[in-house]
Amino acid sequence: MGGRRVSVRRPRVRTADGTAVVPVAAYELFNGTELLGEMAMGRMLAKLSTRRYSAGLEPVGAAVEAEARSTSKSAVSRRFVAATESALAELLARDPAELDLVALMVDGVHFADHLCVVALGIGVDGTKHPLAVVEGSTENATLVTDLLVGLRHRGLNVTRPVLVVIDGAKALAAAVRAVFDHPIIARCQLHKVRNVKAELPKGLADE
Question: What is the pTM (predicted TM-score) of this model?
C-alpha cells in the first residue's frame, strides 16, 4: 500500500468438505513483491537514496505508517539489487537477431572505480537498443572481443555491413574486425573533440 508492505487479516478459503485450503489469486497477487521491486528501482534510478526512500512514498496516514514494513534502507537495497539483476538478465538474454540494426556503438563507461564496456545498437529507424555490458579493468581487445562474440552467439548478424562507432582505441578496432565480416569503423567525434580540448590551454579549449 503506497509502496509499503502492510499486514492484513487473510481468512482462509476451504473446500466444501473442509479438507483442503483453496488458493485465492487475489491473495497471491497482493502477497507478491514484484511491484515493490519495480517501485524501488524506479525511485533509485531517479536518485532517491535508500536512506530517504520513505520520503518519496505516497502518504497513507500515521496509523498505516506505524505498521508498514519493507521501507528500511536494507530492505529497499535488497529489492533494488534483485530488480536490477533481473533486468540485466533479461537484457543479456534478448535475441538481437530480431532487431534491424544498422549501427553499433561500443564504449567504456566508468561507474566509480568500475569500468563497464557497453554495446549499443541503433536500428534503421534510429531507435537505440542496449545489447550487452561487461565489466573489466580496461577496454582491452580480449574484453571487447568476448562481448561481441557473445552477441554473435545470441544471434547478432555479423555478416552484413554495419557502422561501428568507437573511441579510436586500437584494441576496440581489432576486436571489431575479428568478429564482423564487413565493419565500417568510424571514430566517435565526441571523443575526438574531448581529446583535442584536453591538449589545448584552458583559454582556448571552448573556442
Answer: 0.67
DSSP-derived secondary structure letter, 21: B
Neighbouring CB atoms inside 10 A of 196's CB total 10
Q: What percent of the chain has pLDDT over 90?
A: 21
- Alpha-carbon span 162 to 151, nearest angstrom: 14
Cβ pair 130, 143 in contact under 8 A: no
Integer CA distances (angstroms), 64 to 1, 8, 60, 73, 98, in order: 9, 11, 6, 19, 47
pLDDT for the residue numbered 26: 83
C-alpha to C-alpha distance for 114 and 18, rounded to whole angstroms: 58
- For residue 75, what are the CA distances in angstroms to 30, 82, 198? 18, 11, 44
Nearest to 185 by CA among 131, 148, 153, 152: 148
Residues sharing a CB contact under 8 Å with residue 54, sequence separation 6 or more, in sequence order: 71
pLDDT category of residue 41 using cuts at 50, 70 and 90: confident
pLDDT score of 167 more than 80: yes
Range name among 77-81, 148-152, 195-199 with the lowest pLDDT average: 195-199
